[in-house]
């Protein structure tokens, strides 16, 4: 039986075989995130990770105005409860567990076994950077307005941007520039710095581009694609030697897949191979 997805403020659909589209669905609030929405998107990625009907994921935001305007500061509980307690105890028992729960939810996009493509459009502030840098591929529209917005509300970004941005792009100077100033930058600068890999005219064209890319990924061996994600993510935080050793430990199992002879046969006969679900 196909899995079902029922999460408030999210639409999860399968418009094509093997492709899931996750839509942040709170357009009336510019798709701003509440704490429960952050927790739930982690649950969605965790569920898709083991859904055999899913081979690639497209992440987008409802409406034309925003991918997400970031955290809904009207509903955010940034300081925890109003109880008068020892600040150290409040940190250990309340604030740190809350923050780690949100960090873990965002990280599920990175941990998800399936490749995730973010389609950034309109206002893409704060959580948009946290979340999209945890995904595998980012594309955007010409009208996108990007910002690591957190310093404008008096805090350092704390659920992913400061840890991932410098690994996604090549310039620490640029990363510090946008994180210290919270300035808004656009598609051209994002492409130049390597934050995104493609820029499309509008959201419609960007979604079409993302679906074509997802379709291509989904047509490949799921063993090969998901192994590649595992090995690439491992290599980000390890030396070349460590990466090679991990590959040598992983691939002897993956090399036994029936997908290899199917792929080779397809290449030799110039036919499109079909790969079984995991």
TrEMBL record:
<keyword id="KW-0576">Peroxisome</keyword>
<keyword id="KW-0413">Isomerase</keyword>
<dbReference type="Pfam" id="PF00378">
    <property type="entry name" value="ECH_1"/>
</dbReference>
<keyword id="KW-0443">Lipid metabolism</keyword>
<dbReference type="InterPro" id="IPR045002">
    <property type="entry name" value="Ech1-like"/>
</dbReference>
<dbReference type="GO" id="GO:0005739">
    <property type="term" value="C:mitochondrion"/>
</dbReference>
<dbReference type="GO" id="GO:0005777">
    <property type="term" value="C:peroxisome"/>
</dbReference>
<dbReference type="InterPro" id="IPR029045">
    <property type="entry name" value="ClpP/crotonase-like_dom_sf"/>
</dbReference>
<dbReference type="GO" id="GO:0051750">
    <property type="term" value="F:delta(3,5)-delta(2,4)-dienoyl-CoA isomerase activity"/>
</dbReference>
<keyword id="KW-0276">Fatty acid metabolism</keyword>
<comment type="pathway">
    <text>Lipid metabolism; fatty acid beta-oxidation.</text>
</comment>
<comment type="similarity">
    <text>Belongs to the enoyl-CoA hydratase/isomerase family.</text>
</comment>
<dbReference type="InterPro" id="IPR001753">
    <property type="entry name" value="Enoyl-CoA_hydra/iso"/>
</dbReference>
<dbReference type="InterPro" id="IPR014748">
    <property type="entry name" value="Enoyl-CoA_hydra_C"/>
</dbReference>
<dbReference type="GO" id="GO:0006635">
    <property type="term" value="P:fatty acid beta-oxidation"/>
</dbReference>
<keyword id="KW-0007">Acetylation</keyword>
<protein>
    <recommendedName>
        <fullName>Enoyl-CoA hydratase</fullName>
    </recommendedName>
</protein>
């Amino acid at each position: 039986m196909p899995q079902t997805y029922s999460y408030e403020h999210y639409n999860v659909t399968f418009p094509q075989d093997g492709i899931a589209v996750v839509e942040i669905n709170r357009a009336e609030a510019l798709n701003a995130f509440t704490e429960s929405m952050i927790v739930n998107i982690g649950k969605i990625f965790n569920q898709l990770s083991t859904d055999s009907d899913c081979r690639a994921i497209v992440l987008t935001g409802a409406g034309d105005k925003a991918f997400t305007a970031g955290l809904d500061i009207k509903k955010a509980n940034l300081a925890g409860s109003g109880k008068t307690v020892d600040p150290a105890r409040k940190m250990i028992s309340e604030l740190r567990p809350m923050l780690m729960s949100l960090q873990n939810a965002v990280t599920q996009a990175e941990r998800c076994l399936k490749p995730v493509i973010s389609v950034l459009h309109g206002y893409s502030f704060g959580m948009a950077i946290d979340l999209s840098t945890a995904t595998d591929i980012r594309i955007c529209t010409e009208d996108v307005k990007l910002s690591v917005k957190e310093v404008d509300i008096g805090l350092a970004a704390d659920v992913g941007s400061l840890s991932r941005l410098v690994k996604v792009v090549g310039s620490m100077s640029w990363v510090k520039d946008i994180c210290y100033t919270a300035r808004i930058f656009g598609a051209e600068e994002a492409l130049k710095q390597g934050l995104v890999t493609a820029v499309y005219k509008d959201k419609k064209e960007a979604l079409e581009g993302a679906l074509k890319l997802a379709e291509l990924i989904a047509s490949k061996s799921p063993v090969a694609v998901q192994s590649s994600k595992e090995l690439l993510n491992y290599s980000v935080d390890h030396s070349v030697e460590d990466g090679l050793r991990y590959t040598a430990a992983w691939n002897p199992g993956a090399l036994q897949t029936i997908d290899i002879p199917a792929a080779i046969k397809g290449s030799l006969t110039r036919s499109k191979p079909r790969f079984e679900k995991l």
